[in-house]
Amino acid sequence: MNLKISALEFIEEVKTGNITVEEFTAKTIERINQIDDKLHAFLSVNDNALDQARNIDKKIKSGEKVGDCFGMPISIKDNMCIKDTKTTCASKMLENFVAPYDATVISKLKKQDAIFIGKVNMDEFAMGLTTEFSAFGPSKNPWNIEHVPGGSSGGSAVSVSSYECIASLGSDTGGSVRNPASFCSTVGYKPTYGLISRYGLISYANSIEQIGPLTRTVKDTAFMLNLIAGVDPNDNTTVNNNNEDYLKNIDSGIEGKKIGIITETIGDGIDPEVMTATKEAISKLEGLGAICEEVSLEMVKYSVAAYYTITATEAGSNLARYDNLRYGYEMPVEGYEFNSYISKARKNFGPEVTRRMIIGGFVPSAGHAGKYFLKAMKVKSKLTKEINEAFKKFDLLIAPTVPILPFKIGEKIDDPVSLFLVDINTVTANLTGKPAISIPFKIVNGLPIGIQLMANSMNDKMLLQAAHALEKTVTLPEIPI
Amino acid sequence: MTKIGLEIHCQLTNLESKLFCSCKANYREFEPNENICPVCAGMPGSLPRLNQEAVKKATMIAMALNCSTPEKIAFFRKNYFYPDLPKNFQITQLNIYGDTSVGGSGTISVGDKKIRITRIQLEEDPGRLIYEGSSSKNQITLVDYNRAGTPLVEIVTEPDFETPKEVRDFLNILSDLLKNLGVADPSLEGAMRADANVSTRGGNKVEIKNIGSFHDLEKAAHFEITRQESLHDRDIPIAQETRHWDDRRKITVSSRSKEEDMDYRYFLEGDIPWVKINPEIRTELKSEMPESISSKKERYVTKYNIPEQVADVLSSDKYYSDMFEKSHTESNAKEVANIITTELMGLEDTREKREASKLTATHLRDLADSIQTGKVSRNSSKNALHEILKTGKSVSQIISDLDLGNVSDESELLKIIDKIISDESEAVEQAKSNPQTINYLVGKVMQATKGKADPTSTLNLLKKQIGI
Fold first, then answer.
1. Structure ipTM
2. Which residue in A184, A331, B142, B173 has a CA-CA distance of 20 to 30 Å to B326?
3. Which of B44, B88, B89 sits opposite A87 (nearest CB)?
């Protein structure tokens, strides 16, 4: 049984009867049991997966209508609610939190007969880009387990790249889907803000984050997007996509498309290997008929500072509800006045979350907001203006997803500022609401490099077409696990 | 000189659902924590879903108070920790980054005075804390989130009030206005709460929080003025502070908490996109708005010739003015208004009585017509009205059942009058010398006819028989 097939291949195999869902599910669980001790992608595995698989097989046999996923095993980042399932955000604060409802993406995929094979690891409350800040221990990069898998959707990227599932849903606040996708060599996509409902995604910085799929191929991403995109009455920020079919015409190519190379992403601080890969990607795109040209986005150099100011502000507010009064972990209330109870209960947050909440209490506070939060909001709106201007001239923007190669676990954990700077190429898409995708491009010294393409709002379809074109030019070695 | 400013919180009790979810806005009939869902309980991952109807109703209130309404409204987060707040922030509105609240500045007339409205904002109500236990040592706090997320409109005024009476007059007008708009029933428990800012003789401003009813608001203002005046008299400076209204003892008490120092870290609520309120929407809302109290009053006076005072009373009460609208005709309007304001308002002065009443618009119309055509005297109509409320029987049925019909047969009335004249010879003589005392004889006739005689014809016949 080949676990390395794509989502679309899996569906064909099941439809033609070459494999049963039960066989594939069993094999997948076996794979998880075999290798996940080493990789730590999963925080919990679905005990009912095999039963669900058998039920779908039964439906297929009896000719009943089966959902578009045909029992495909999908892993879910542990910040999305699945009813009656633990949803921890990789935090001690929510260690025992069982979600009382389904996130919109979950109920949509349930209807399509997806099997949620398990909940996967992440940086606590999605704050981080290495998965080292999980309260339950880091995930490892399957290409080299001494290296970080990226984050915060590290578990998603690890589970897809090491064949523990076919696809995964992550969330991307400043690169949290694209960064681990790049580090683990999977496709990782952040849609236009509002394209996918966030209802049931536990908020970190709600004004800029989106759920996004991590898959083996761009086509698989388009397939997933078809299932989960669109207006949701439960999320007032969702936008109407007119039931766009993202798979249709995915082979359109990029001939004649104008691509801007963001000057600020290929200058100081970029690893020479990443620089080389980026140049190779550009020449491949030119080979496909695209016209590439440098474009400077001056505000990019302030984007990381603005990003951390805005996200800390929103996090400080979004995470305020974790006071342990309504749900959380066991801690008796007797003998406390409420303020002291809340203070004590909230000590269960990990160091990175605590750091960002302290910043989040400071930067928007009276007397400091003008210097920090409001200034950051100004950067956000100027950056948006600048990028909208660029999209008048260009169809797409290109940059390396991450300026450096996957680094070793522990290497940057004590240096938050240098860690923050790794986000420089990804935060722009979040601050401006634009869609962006990371495509596996190269393996150098056994470590992956991803290339990022960005498009204007609601041009997600064109973005996927371009990503697919670039993807077709790439052949990568087998993962060594 | 005394200055009082108000912050009034009014629940939009007539809405079907809460401000951000589909739980009931009327939480009062539920067991604790029954009227909640992931959204209003602030469960992880839930998002607010703005109730557009609440935006409409709040905008109507702003328009009715002559406030400016912005092109686009926005929501903000007010961040603070409190156990009654499921998310530990409240979604509210703010005007510090431009006018984005449902209502900007406006004015409302209270008597001859104009009270300035600072702003009107739409926000969510927190849950409710219930304290149990006798001493502070074994006191426990229970939280009920049924109320959390109930749509609340906050109306902030400038410090334009100079006396508690002006406050009361304003509250009466506001209360009538909200009822007339059909957005709220201010009489429901907890539906109206207020904070008041009071300063006297140019001294510091004292904020009084937690006033649970309109009735107490006037009392609180009164108490606070007296307290401050007595401090002034003894040359003790007034501290700028927050005080709480002690509902039980009816006094204000200094709060230990430094609420004035709180930093709420306001910022835009990204989960709710800006809501456009363009001129078309405003026009539409205006057309949906019921006629204002002042325009109703004017119509009653000019069209039906109803006395100004009667029109005033009638128009300012939605229940009775609705009843008037349903039951009057061109010809009997004045009579209907008269029955409502002189009799009915006394008979249906509580919610229970209104609910028990079997009176319909048809009853009122028939009763007024019967008075006008002389079928029943105004006097007897009171008894009829009593009976209608109790039984719901038709007016004609009641008139015949209770034998309330006017003594219209003049010869019969004459017989009675002649008997009274012979029985009351002393009074008759007196009436001859002092015509005003004839009323005594009219009263006797009424007594004898059980009020069924028409007073005017009785008087005329009496005069004729006595010869004055």
1. 0.96
2. B173
3. B44
